[in-house]
């Protein structure tokens, strides 16, 4: 993530001559000193992003006193600032009804009468509680706010063992008790927890539970990917209600098993594609990976790796994620998610359909994200710019801007919403920047200053000079 407190990277739009090399003073804020890195860590510089390296300033394993998660999982999953609700989702696969799944969602009622709803979609490994900082600002401004837990996250799970009779040694291990038996439980034969199921869940949720006529879909990371895919796949009646899609560091890809229609020969080389039962070799692989990732110390290190906040993410979020992973079907769901084939539509294809339907798009990207680097934001904008689109870049901000820089994200969302769907009685706000490079600042509650800049298509050169501010942060770190 950053090289350091001694290396300073420009925040403003600056162009450097091709013949010159940027000079970085050794005093100032922002990153991590090269002098403080071990020799082994220094070797990572060539292969790692500037953002990824910020994680090295924190210990590789975080040792803290942690609360017992026994009997407290449901309490930890409850989001603050919104009411928890449950839905018995009668999901169907190929039109065949199956045993209902319990879906949890949070709702914050609008404080001002309106007919506009914002539906928030979370990323992988988190749940509706990740949007606690958005519930009050958006509902206070006159928007009803919903946040659903995708099946296999938060409090959205099957209520029975989907493949009973698993190995004895797993039956007492939290997170691994369900789903590893020799056959699927009746009614769950077609259940594959993954993007196809989530897309159907989102569309059905909007149809059945979102009473407002106008709907804004917003998502971070995997949630942004699903927002685009779900909108592109909805029935004409449902998509007609979608008035906007906001993408917050949306991941532009998901899954590693090829799509059957796009690459049938390679698709057939994979013997298992998520349907129950889970083969023994997949079970062992998934359990090893799952148990490594779900450790609270590992979770905290990983979250610190993708944040730009020098204070890190704290201990509570890792605890909540680890508690979610204790669900009896956790490891089985993880195995299915990992082995689910790619969707029929790519991210770009789905985004193209959204734009073709004349749905406005907001791209809101943290610049210091080590995974979804600025290239991906600019690439998404290239597709979205054929329609109505705004591309804003936040800096410093990492992979989950709504969590680490919530004041800036809320201000951007509210300005965009007010321009598109003003609510009578809400406080007036400034307009979003209209010119490329125009910016404004937002102060977070801890006094961090976040620069919000309007971006456009990538501009590697301007008038014979390198457009330094357009380069990904990891490239800047090489100089």
Quickly describe the structure:
The protein has helices spanning 39-43, 73-77, 132-140, 195-209, 222-233, 236-239, 264-268, 280-293, 296-306, 316-324, 330-339, 347-356, 374-384, 401-404, 406-420, 473-476; strands at residues 15-17, 83-89, 92-93, 96-97, 101-108, 116-121, 144-148, 214-220, 242-248, 361-366, 389-395, 439-443, 449-454, 461-462, 465-467. By secondary structure, it is α/β, with parallel strands linked by helices.
Determine the N-to-C terminus distance. 15 Å
User: How can the largest sheet be summarized?
Assistant: 10 strands, mixed
Q: Mind telling me the CATH class of the largest domain?
A: Alpha Beta
Q: What number is the mean pLDDT?
A: 84
Number of discrete helical segments = 16
General shape: globular
CATH superfamily of the largest domain: Alpha/Beta hydrolase fold, catalytic domain
Strand order of the largest sheet: 2-5-7-6-8-9-10-11-13-12
Integer count of domains:
2
Roughly how many Å is the radius of gyration? Answer: 22 Å
Organism: Durusdinium trenchii
Keywords: Hydrolase
GO molecular function: hydrolase activity
Protein name: Chloroplastic (Pheophytin pheophorbide hydrolase) (Protein CO-REGULATED WITH NYE1)
Please describe what this structure looks like.
There is one protein chain. With 479 residues, the chain is an alpha/beta fold. The chain folds into two domains: 15-65 and 459-476, no CATH class; 73-448, Alpha/Beta hydrolase fold, catalytic domain (Rossmann fold, 3-Layer(aba) Sandwich). Helices cover 30% and strands 16% of the residues. The protein contains 16 helices and 15 strands. It has helices at 39-43, 73-77, 132-140, 195-209, 222-233, 236-239, 264-268, 280-293, 296-306, 316-324, 330-339, 347-356, 374-384, 401-404, 406-420, 473-476, and strands spanning 15-17, 83-89, 92-93, 96-97, 101-108, 116-121, 144-148, 214-220, 242-248, 361-366, 389-395, 439-443, 449-454, 461-462, 465-467. The strands form three sheets. Strands 2-5-7-6-8-9-10-11-13-12 form a ten-stranded mixed β-sheet, sandwiched between helices. The longest helix is centred in the middle third of the chain and has 15 residues, at 195-209. The two termini are 15 Å apart.
């Amino acid at each position: 993530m950053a090289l350091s407190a001694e290396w300073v990277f420009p925040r403003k739009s600056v162009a450097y001559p091709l013949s010159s090399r940027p000079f970085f003073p050794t005093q100032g804020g922002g990153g991590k000193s090269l002098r403080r890195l071990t020799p082994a860590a220094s070797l990572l510089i060539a292969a790692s992003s500037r953002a990824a390296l910020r994680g090295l300033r924190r210990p590789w394993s975080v040792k803290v006193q942690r609360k017992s998660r026994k009997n407290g999982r449901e309490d930890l999953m409850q989001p603050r600032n919104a009411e928890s609700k449950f839905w018995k989702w009668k999901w169907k696969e190929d039109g065949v009804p199956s045993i209902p799944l319990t879906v949890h969602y949070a709702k914050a009622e609008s404080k001002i009468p309106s007919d506009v709803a914002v539906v928030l979609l979370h990323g992988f490994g988190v749940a509706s509680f990740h949007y606690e900082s958005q519930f009050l600002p958006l509902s206070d401004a006159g928007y009803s706010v919903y946040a659903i837990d995708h099946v296999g996250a938060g409090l959205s799970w099957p209520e029975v063992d989907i493949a009973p009779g698993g190995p004895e040694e797993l039956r007492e291990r939290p997170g691994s008790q369900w789903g590893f038996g020799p056959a699927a439980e009746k009614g769950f034969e077609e259940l594959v927890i993954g993007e196809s199921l989530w897309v159907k869940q989102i569309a059905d949720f909007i149809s059945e539970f979102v009473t407002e006529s106008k709907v804004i879909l917003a998502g971070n990371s995997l949630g942004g990917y699903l927002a685009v895919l779900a909108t592109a796949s909805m029935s004409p009646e449902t998509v007609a209600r979608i008035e906007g899609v906001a993408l917050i560091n949306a991941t532009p890809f998901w899954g590693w098993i090829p799509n059957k229609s796009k690459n049938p020969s390679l698709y057939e080389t994979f013997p298992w594609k998520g349907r129950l039962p889970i083969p023994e070799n997949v079970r062992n692989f998934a359990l090893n990976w799952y148990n490594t990732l779900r450790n609270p110390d590992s979770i905290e290190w990983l979250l610190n790796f993708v944040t730009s906040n020098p204070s890190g993410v704290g201990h509570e979020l890792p605890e909540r994620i680890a508690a979610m992973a204790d669900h009896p079907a956790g490891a089985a769901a993880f195995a299915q998610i990992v082995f689910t084939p790619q969707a029929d539509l790519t991210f770009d294809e789905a985004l193209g359909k959204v734009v073709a339907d004349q749905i406005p798009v907001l791209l809101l990207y943290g610049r210091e994200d080590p995974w979804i680097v600025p290239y991906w934001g600019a690439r998404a904008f290239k597709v979205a710019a054929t329609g109505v689109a705004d591309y804003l870049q936040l800096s410093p901000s990492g992979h989950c801007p709504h969590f680490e820089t919530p004041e800036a994200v809320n201000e951007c969302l509210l300005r965009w919403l007010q321009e598109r769907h003003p609510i009578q009685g809400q406080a007036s706000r400034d307009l979003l920047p209209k010119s490329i490079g125009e910016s404004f600042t937002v102060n977070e509650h801890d006094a961090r200053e976040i620069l919000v800049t309007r971006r456009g298509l990538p501009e590697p050169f301007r008038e014979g000079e390198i457009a330094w501010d357009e380069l990904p942060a990891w490239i800047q770190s090489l100089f």
